[in-house]
Design goal:
The protein has eight helices and nine strands. It is globular and about 60 Å long.
Length: 273
């Protein structure tokens, strides 16, 4: 499948059928990089953290906010709007479109230093996305989350234009709800005996659920080799790279969408009373 932000079940890159594989390779050739991802099943998370030697006290703390309508109109259109506060580093914002075909993007936008085109691959699925990023002050992100600052002021002129070109008609920044915060622990490490940096992220959701994701980035030409090496490394660490995969963004949007819809229904009931 070309991929949308959906849960997937295990299938290796090398198991993708020919026509679909050709499509994937075309996306990779037009992208800046490939990010290989794996969400660790809940039953394996404790043993994975131990076997990988991860120290949570070395992790960077992040606070993530998504913005969408209660019925996820942006997500259905393939648009993701996000802001982060990062411990010791300030903040950033993202407007992302997925799936995309790199060659279909406007040349001016493709050349922008703020634009990153990347293929995310995980067991059973992949998606190519175009992301416009911008640095912001962490305090401004907090003000927006508290309703003290208009959301649109967090985003650059280029991001606002990108949003307007792809968001559903009639859905402006002022129509979006704040989905968050979600606390994230991020840890960069190089596995024992390895040479490639791996990123471990634990996303802690308000309902006490959590996702542990392992990822690494590589050039498109290295994708299959890095995937094979990663699979062998995970096997040695006792991590099973199979089973249902849950993406971080999807889990966040589904949780906060449900909360927003419940709050809206409760308000309508109170109004009727």
């Amino acid at each position: 499948m070309e991929g949308s932000d959906v849960a997937t079940t295990g299938r290796r890159l090398t198991e993708i059928p020919g026509e679909e594989l050709a499509h994937l390779l075309d996306l990779v050739r037009g992208s800046d990089s490939v990010e290989l991802k794996l969400t660790v099943p809940g039953a394996d998370q404790r043993s994975a953290i131990k076997s990988l030697g991860l120290d949570p006290l070395e992790a960077q703390i992040r606070q993530v906010f998504f913005f969408d309508t209660p019925d996820l109109a942006l997500n259905q259109a393939g648009v993701v709007v996000r802001a982060r506060r990062v411990q010791g580093r300030g903040g950033d914002t993202v407007v992302k479109l997925r799936p995309v075909v790199p060659d279909d993007l406007p040349e001016e936008l493709r050349r922008s230093p703020a634009m990153v085109v990347e293929v995310d691959a995980m067991p059973g699925g992949y998606v190519c996305s175009a992301t416009l990023k911008s640095r912001v002050d962490a305090g401004e992100v907090r003000e927006v989350s508290l309703g003290k600052r208009p959301l649109r002021k967090l985003f650059s002129k280029q991001q606002r234009a990108f949003y307007a070109a792809h968001a559903p008609e009639g859905v402006g920044f002022d129509d979006l709800s704040v989905f968050g915060p979600i606390f994230v622990l991020k840890l960069n490490f190089v596995p024992e005996g390895g040479s490639r940096r791996v990123v471990a992220e634990v996303w802690l959701y308000p309902d006490d659920s959590h996702i542990l994701e392992l990822s690494t980035k590589c050039a498109g030409s290295e994708m299959f080799q890095v995937a094979a090496e990663g699979r062998a490394f995970l096997s040695r660490a006792g991590v099973t790279p199979s089973g249902e995969q849950h993406t971080k963004t999807r889990a966040a949007l589904e949780y906060f969408s449900r909360i927003a819809r419940e709050e809206r229904a409760a308000a309508e009931t109170d109004g009727d009373g």
